[in-house]
Structure formats: structure tokens, C-alpha cells
Amino acid sequence: MVKIVGIGGSLRPDSYSQRALRLVAQRIEALGAEVEVLDLRDMNLPFCDGGDDYSAYPDVARLQNTVRAADGLILSTPEYHGSVSGVLKNALDLMGFEELSGKVAGLISVLGGQSNSNALNDLRTIMRWVHAWVIPEQVAIGQAWKAFDSEGNLVDEGLSKRLDQFAQSLVENTAKLRQAA
Amino acid sequence: MVKIVGIGGSLRPDSYSQRALRLVAQRIEALGAEVEVLDLRDMNLPFCDGGDDYSAYPDVARLQNTVRAADGLILSTPEYHGSVSGVLKNALDLMGFEELSGKVAGLISVLGGQSNSNALNDLRTIMRWVHAWVIPEQVAIGQAWKAFDSEGNLVDEGLSKRLDQFAQSLVENTAKLRQAA
Amino acid sequence: MVKIVGIGGSLRPDSYSQRALRLVAQRIEALGAEVEVLDLRDMNLPFCDGGDDYSAYPDVARLQNTVRAADGLILSTPEYHGSVSGVLKNALDLMGFEELSGKVAGLISVLGGQSNSNALNDLRTIMRWVHAWVIPEQVAIGQAWKAFDSEGNLVDEGLSKRLDQFAQSLVENTAKLRQAA
Amino acid sequence: MVKIVGIGGSLRPDSYSQRALRLVAQRIEALGAEVEVLDLRDMNLPFCDGGDDYSAYPDVARLQNTVRAADGLILSTPEYHGSVSGVLKNALDLMGFEELSGKVAGLISVLGGQSNSNALNDLRTIMRWVHAWVIPEQVAIGQAWKAFDSEGNLVDEGLSKRLDQFAQSLVENTAKLRQAA
Hints:
Four copies of one chain form a homotetramer.
Chain A: E1 3-8, H1 16-30, E2 34-38, H2 58-68, E3 72-78, H3 86-93, H4 97-100, E4 104-110, H5 118-129, E5 133-141, H6 157-178
Parallel strand pairs in A: 1-2, 1-3, 3-4, 4-5
């Protein structure tokens, strides 16, 4: 059984990227995988200072240990200024090869305006840099303020179906890639 | 006289990207421009939460006001995981069009390993997103640990000359682009 | 008076990117600049072989000479596979610093599906590589098959207005950047 | 047994990217995979015109059929102007989802100057666009003119070892990803 960890890149109380992450997490769980969502709003993480002593912030070790033990990752970010949020990038900066190398990641972005894939492109390059795999399926949710209904589900069936395919691909391909050679 | 603000993307005490930023700032001053360096290590900035009330952190207003009043910017970042540091991206996330649009930016990155332009590419796209100009000259300093001598100058004369051209281009072209149409 | 050269990256007989290019060329001419459009459909260009003898193809010299004499460029490309068309990239490969360095470029992309800025991002990095300037304004035209009316004008007024701003910025800023220091 | 097709993006008679491709092809064959190299210098391909009738160029069908029948791909490109060669991009433009979707690709770039990963980044985004996988391992060979010895082998043992890991990863992970779910 594959273990997937989801990380959301927004600290906004009513964040859409966190909602999208929960939707995917549910679907991944329904496919029989184990899922844990790390909500950065509930964690006390410092800015990365380029060093390796974060003992004053136990949540750094929690982040690192949880990701290290995972097979796959969901990274869900708001697109800020045409890229990944500084919040999510900083969380990734607090980890390294030990946590991220060889993991299988799926990427989601959420935008206030028109859909775009800049944040997804940057995240894809970043994850490769730490030798992670990134699945080809990715989801950019544009005009997020009207993308979700009152129950937190996606209004657009096409998008919802793409989230299904995303979840399916992440679980299946994490299983394939993480098996012994 | 053009006003340039420099922002360094590292919180490391002995940061090379901050050193590179100081070198450029000196050269820009010598060219007759006004320069102010905002050292993020001395500022108390929060993580961007997607909102706009940061009154609990006066340094956010200081960052915003200083950049708003500037004509040009130097952004100097360590390359973490093949991209801009989360620290610098977060500082940019705390600003928007009001501060950044129409400004002229020059980009510097510093790497522990082999030189690369990933962080510079990402920053270029990010700055365009907020409708800033980015000068074609850019400097990536690889293997930073051996790039500086004991007095903080660059060992490689080619790199040092490129910093000169960078400073020259930033000052000249900021003046050109910021004049009335 | 600034000289602008437009290059379209599509060989399709009824190309939308060529239409968009013509629209911009008209607006740029109306602003008092000189415009020449190089239609790659009417030129006989070879694939770039990494060498410098293209004497068997006089259109290579025509491309090089026309661009060398220009102050600014409009590059209009269909987005193929999330990037610039091979046709346009090859035309750029047939030139180098001598033709492209210091020029001021504006970028347009046209897509069959949803709007995206991948081709524009790649072109921005490519143009910087040859030390050209790229204006912050850029236009991506999604679902091109329904973007133009029967007279070849843009249906969406917002897009049309963005083309106006694009033309204005290209002419004004080319004039600023190309003046003597 | 996995089938790998290699495509080189240079038409230069003594191309280094083609040499690098041959080196990898040998290693992949030694690992028990089937390899076919499509040398674009020996094929008569037209520029992509956005249409789908290339019956006048039988090599288009040969390219398409060979890639369609493959499990994995090696794409080896010279870095021209900080991106993939127009020649290789055009060859990819002549194919689509039918040929490329679901394939597993490994990427190599060769540069005249200092190593960089721009062409690799662009290719990674392009291949994702057509729903291919790209392995995390990638190789950029800088200063190619001094990277190979007289027998066409890489002088730098570190680089040579990275090509080994690249070949190993491509074969192993193509096998994993192409198995039935």
C-alpha cells in the first residue's frame, strides 16, 4: 500500500488550494492508499536559513519525517506572481534529497484569474532538482472563487474528472515506481 | 538620479548572495545611482497568508514603501532546489503590482555547485508577471564557496567584469525606461 | 523612428498567429513606427545545421539582414506542445548575437485550446539568451478558432485592448532602449 | 523487453549530441533493451505546417511509426539559444499524443559553453505537454568540444558515470511504468 503525503502551499484561512488538496486526498484514500495531509497553517515552520539546525522548531522534523516515510506527494499551491507560493517553496527548502529523492509527486495549482501552468512548471523543475518523479497529469484550477460549490466540490465536471485521473495516476504510478527494480 | 533597491534572498549569516548583492550595490553607487539594500536577515517579515493586513509586522510596510519608491531592483538569491529561495519568493509575495509594476530589475543567483540559470529563469518569469522589466544581463555565481576572496571580492575576473556590466546596464536602462514617454 | 520586424512562427495557410501578427503590425504602423513582416511561408529557409554557410539559401541572409537592421521584433508563435513552434525556433537558430542582441522584442502566442503562457515563457528565456530585451506586455490568444471575426479582427475587446497596449509599449520602449546612453 | 528510440536534435556532421546519443544507446543495449536511433541527418523531414498530410515525406510516417511502437525515448539536443534546437522541436511537432503520450523519456543536452539546463527544462515541459514521463536523471554536457576523446568517449568520468545511471534509470523505469496497471 502506497503512502501519500499532501502539502498545501497556502496559509489563507479559506484557501482553495487546501480544498483542492482535500478533494484529491479523499479520492486517493478511496483508491486504497494511505494519505496524510500536512496543513502548513497548523504547523510552526521557520524560514529556511540555509543551515540544518531547526531543533527550535519541532515541526521541521515532523515535516521531514513524514515526507521521508512517504512514497508519493501531492503538492497544491496557489499561483502567486506566476509561480509557486513562497510558503510552499520554503517548506521544500527545509527538506532535501533525503526526504524528496525518488518520491513520486503530483502537482496542483489554484489561481484567482485565468488558468495557467507557470506554478506547475516551476514546481516540476524544482521536484526534478531533488530527483523526484512528477506524474504527467497535473491540474490548474483557474478562477478558483467560482470553481467550488458550497460543499467544497468542484463545479466543473471536466475538472473533477481530471482530479480523478490525477488521483488514479498518482496511486498507480507511485506503486509501479516504488517497487523494487 | 535613479533609485535602486537591493533585496537578498538568503537568511544565512555568512551568505554569498548577500555578499554579491553588496558588491553590486557598491558599483551601482559608484555610477551615481542611489542604492538601498534591504537585508531580510534584519527584517521581521511574516509568511504571506494571501491577505493584505500585515499591520502586526511594520517591516512589511517598510518593504513595500521602499520598493514602491524605487525605480529599479536588484534581486540576489541563493539557488535552492533549482529555483529562487522561498524566503525571497515570500518577500515578493508580500508585494504586488503597486510596488513592482514598471520597475527595472537585475537578477543574481548564487549556487553551491555548478553554475546554472534555473533560479534566474524563474525569477525572470515572476518579475514579468508583476509587469516589471528584467535586464538581459544576469549573473549566476557557481561554487560560491570558492568564488570570493577573504575581502569579499570575486576571485574570477570574468565574473567581476560581468558584475560591472550588470551594474552599468541596470543604471543606464533604468534611467531610460523610467523617463517620461 | 523605430524599425520593427515581425516574424510569425506558423506555416499553416490560414494561420491565426500570422493574423495576430498582422493586427499588431497595423497598430504599430499607426503609431508611427516602420514595420516589416517576414512571412516564413514565403521564405525558403533550411533547417539550422549548426554551421554558418547558408549561401545556398538566400533567404537566410535576407532574414539575418532584415533583423540586424531592426530595432525591435514581434515574435508570434502558435503554441505547439506547450512551447514555441520548431519553425520559429529554427528561424531564431539561423541567427545569433549579431542580429538579435540588444533588440527589443514583444511576444505573442496563439493556442487551439485554453490560454497558457508556456510558449511565451520559453521565448522570453530564449530571447534573453541572445541578450535581447523582452517587454513585460505579452499576449496569449486561447481558442484561436473562435477568437477572430470574419474580417480578421479579435472578437474579445479585452484582448484587442491588450494588443493595443502591447503595440504601444513595444514602440515606446524600443525608442527608449535604443537611444544612445 | 523495452524498446527505446533515440532522436538527436542536431544536423551538424560531427555533432556532439549525436555522439552522446550513441554512447547512451550502447549502454542501453548492454542492459538488454532494444534500441533504435533515428538520425535526423539521414531523414528527409519537412517543417511542420500544422496540418496532418505529410504523405509527400515518407520519413514522417517512419518517425511516427517508430516512436509509436516504442516504450521509451532518448532525446539528445544541442542547446541553441538557451533551449532545444528548432530541428528537434520540429520533429516533435510532427508527432502528437498518439506517438508520445505515456512514453518514458530521458533527456540529454550538449553545449558549446558552460553547462546549463535550460534546454532540458524546456524539453521536460514539452514532453509533459504530450503526457510523456521524463526520468529525473538528465545529462547536460558543457564545453562539448573538449568533452569527448578521439574514440568518442567522454573524458570526464563523472559525466560518464552519470550517463550509466541515466541509461539504467531509463531502462528500469520504462519497464516499471509500461507494465499493465
